[in-house]
Amino acid sequence: MSTHRETADRIINAMIVDDDSLIVESLATILSAQPDINVCATASGGTEAVQIYAKLASESVSRETSSARTTKEGAANATAVTATDDVAPSAAPDAPAAVPDDAPAVPDNAPTATLTSATVAPDAPAPNDAAPVAATDTAAPATPAPDDATPASAATLDAAAPTTAPDTPTPAVPDVLLMDIRMPDGDGLSAAERILADYPQARIIFLTTFADDDYIVRALRMGARGYLIKQDVATIAPALRSVMAGQNVLGSEVMERAFFLGNVSRETSTTPSAPSTTSVTLSPAEASALSTSSSPAA
């Protein structure tokens, strides 16, 4: 199991899915107090969880596509500029042709154009009563700047310039979903199956009050990464780090059921609202997954 120090440089985005708003608020408070965990989304039921996860995943793909397109266009523009720089400069315009030596000479008596200066009428004398215009003493002198006035500095101009609005945080795709099972707006098991069918890379930990055999087996068979009991609150944050490190996690009560589930055969129920009280069949791979899963330490 990974330690807190090993994952401190990686923020874990968690999504909480539970129909109890008080539980959602409490879990969000507990997890957000961890320096490496961020609660990026919540949902009150399975149906809403599927919609929110699909929306966040789609937006993430769009951002990646746009970023890749921008990078490609930038590289193409850089290539075009380089190609332009390599083009040889155009040749200078041809100099005027020289007069050939055998050109006929201009005769001495050829008429030439004479520039005749135009006769300019003398300036009319100014009237006797016309006095030269002089600057009057009544003109208001320029108002001197106040003593405390100082030229605007660069810092002052920068401070006066309008500031750019802060960027809106980019919605994150949940790294791990904490999914309840029994919810009125779509049960957690069905919601998890839909999410994993479309996004196999999704990491889902069931967080419930029920350690029913049918629930545990169905969760493991669909590819859930963990199964915890809500009462073990102190184990939730370590469980998220363990899952991000590539491990599966099981609560202590679920771990106790693992050995029993691996040895007794029974048909698995697929109805989450009617859990079975009998044991169910686990394949060798599922039994191995149970036996090698870790129980998150507080």
Walk me through the structure.
By secondary structure, this protein is an alpha/beta fold. Helices cover 38% and strands 9% of the residues. It has helices at residues 4-7, 21-32, 46-85, 154-160, 188-198, 213-222, 236-244, 252-261, 284-292; strands at 12-17, 37-43, 176-179, 204-208, 226-229, 249-250. A six-stranded parallel sheet has the order 2-1-3-4-5-6, sandwiched between helices. Strand 4 (204-208), helix 6 (213-222) and strand 5 (226-229) form a beta-alpha-beta unit. Helix 3 runs parallel beside helix 5 (188-198) and helix 5 packs parallel to helix 6 (213-222). The longest helix is centred in the N-terminal third of the chain and has 40 residues, at 46-85. The radius of gyration is 42 Å and the shape is elongated. Residues 1-7, 113-120, 154-160 and 263-281 have low confidence and may be disordered.
